[in-house]
Design brief:
With 264 residues, this protein is an alpha+beta fold. It has a 7-stranded antiparallel sheet with strand order 10-1-2-11-12-13-14, covered by helices on one side. Strands 3-4-5-6-7-8-9 form a 7-stranded antiparallel sheet. Strand 1 and strand 2 form a beta hairpin.
Length: 264
């Protein structure tokens, strides 16, 4: 993922409200979200390295990863950051234990967002020690959590506008993720990729010829245990080509699921 905005324990009905965009080169093959042969994992799949950018399990746990933008930090022959998502979801380890077990030197820079029965955790192998987050509104792109890049500030503002609504409309969250507002050059960060790339990467929804927003995801985790997960996939012309939707009930945050269903 390249942008994740989420509200944790900020709504009377939902424990977690999350909206995320995955930005990637269009020629990197991937499959939309689906239940993997490993039945605990619901995620899209990167077909180049086999990992994922965002995934869930039937127990209500979540994992998502973003890169830390640094053109000098490239480790092509070592671990794929996408391994972190299924790596967490395959096992019943607590998020804090999983993070402490990682060989951080084996990965290029990453942000890792994990949610389990103990709360929501953010960690990075380049930026900060792991943190258990208090209830709040957060956004994560390709720097530290809540680094005030224009897209991060705007995504948080747009999500905040919806939190007062009792019924959260997924369509409104997809509209947030489709926002293409471009900030002024003076507001752009300098991450070492050059001004032209900074401009292209600055909006919430990226529309480039070779690189752009490949999919948008919305997650609503109800306090009663129901999960709704919707993903929209986009092609190189930036048109939507597919939507998948999954709704299932879990025993809240621990134990086996009490029921599960998916409709695509």
């Amino acid at each position: 993922m390249c942008l994740i905005v989420f509200a944790y324990d900020m709504h009377p009905d939902y424990r977690l409200i999350l909206a995320a965009n995955r930005d990637e080169f269009f020629d990197r093959p991937a499959t939309p979200a689906h239940w993997w042969d490993e039945p605990e994992i619901l995620a899209g799949r990167d077909l180049q390295r086999g990992g994922s950018w965002l995934g869930l399990d039937r127990r209500g746990r979540l994992a998502a990863v973003t890169n830390v933008r640094n053109p000098q930090d490239i480790l092509p022959d070592r671990h794929s950051r996408g391994e972190l998502v299924p790596g967490f979801l395959r096992h019943r380890r607590a998020a804090a234990d999983f993070v402490s077990s990682l060989d951080n030197a084996g990965y290029a820079g990453y942000n890792l967002l994990l949610a389990d029965g103990h709360g929501v955790h953010w960690s990075s192998n380049r930026l900060s020690p792991a943190k258990l987050l208090p209830p709040g509104l957060y956004a994560l792109s390709n720097a530290a959590l809540d680094t005030p890049w224009p897209k991060v500030r705007r995504a948080k503002l747009l999500l905040a506008n919806h939190l007062a609504e009792r019924a959260i409309d997924p369509a409104a969250l997809f509209a947030l993720l489709a926002d293409g507002q471009r900030p002024d050059d003076a507001a752009l960060p300098d991450t070492g990729v050059g001004r032209d790339w900074e401009r292209q990467l600055a909006p919430i929804f990226i529309q480039g010829a070779e690189y752009g927003t490949r999919c948008s995801s919305v997650l609503l985790q109800h306090r009663k245990g129901q999960v709704t997960f919707i993903e929209r996939t986009f092609d190189q012309r930036h048109g939507g080509v597919a939507e998948v939707r999954f709704t299932y009930a879990v025993t809240p945050f621990s134990g086996p699921s009490v029921a599960a269903s998916a409709d695509n």
